[in-house]
Amino acid sequence: MKKVYGSASEALDGLLFDGMQIAAGGFGLCGIPELLIDALVDSGVKDLTVASNNAGVDGFGLGKLLETKQIKKMMSSYVGENAEFMRQYLSGELELEFNPQGTLAERMRAGGAGIPGFYTKTGVGTQIAEGKEVKQFRGEDYILEEGIFADLSIVKAWKADDTGNLVFRKTARNFNPPAAMCGKVCVVEVEEIVERGALDPDHIHLPGIYVHRIVQGQHEKRIEQRTTRKREDA
For 114-162, what is each residue's pLDDT tens digit? Predict the structure, then answer.
């Protein structure tokens, strides 16, 4: 089965349709599938529901899809760093389903494991719990959260072999593994594709069973917030 494709647009060919749900890996600008996001922009697909921790920044990452109004709804934990995200939400142009970060990650992981729902204490007694089933365990309240079953997962990894075994680099691991797991189809962009057998089995973070298509490319690796101090006098 062929998994390696020549470009991001080729890797997404035949998978996109208006109104689909997409799970996107990354945290801020760390480990985001920027090449696949650009291909989504170019495709013109619209009315998307995107599950992602946040929506990048203005003009980069998922922020590009917000600028082109291709996203109808975000399922996220964080709105900050993206003025257009905040503007569209406050003006009623964009639907937003807030999720605590751990809950969002677990909803993705649960979907990948075939688990339709789970109970969590996070959010009990807050707006997060409104309209959700509450059940007691050991005398304490828990709310029911649904697993995320996306039409498509787009993620970023450091290395892959041609079977789709993935290695993520440092904190880029963040949301990428659970996002990859919960899609009916998972498309991955990587920095390097290595020969089959080159990856130590003990170092593989996500097995190729979850991965359907792979594309290799060059990445910008922007820094979201650059914090520096003045150089001290010699």
Answer: 999 999 999 999 999 999 999 999 999 999 999 999 999 999 999 999 9
Q: Is the pLDDT of residue 234 over 70?
A: no
Tens-digit pLDDT profile for residues 169-200: 999 999 999 999 999 999 999 999 999 999 99
What's the confidence (pLDDT) of residue 145?
Answer: 98
Closest by alpha carbon to 60, among 76, 84, 78? 84
Task: Please choose, from the candidates 87, 55, 90, 91, the residue with its C-alpha nearest in 3D space to the C-alpha of residue 71.
Answer: 55
CA angle 22, 156, 107 (to 5 degrees): 45
Q: What are the Cα distances from residue 205, in Å, to 114, 157, 169, 192, 211?
A: 19, 10, 10, 15, 12
Specify the pTM: 0.92
CA angle 193, 113, 61 (to 5 degrees): 50
Please give, one letter per residue, the 3-state secondary structure of 56-94.
CECCECCHHHHHCCCEEEEEECCCCCCHHHHHHHHCCCC
From the number of C-beta atoms within 10 Å of its C-beta (0-12, 13-18, 19+), residue 54 rates as: buried
Token code pair at residue 61 = 């990452």
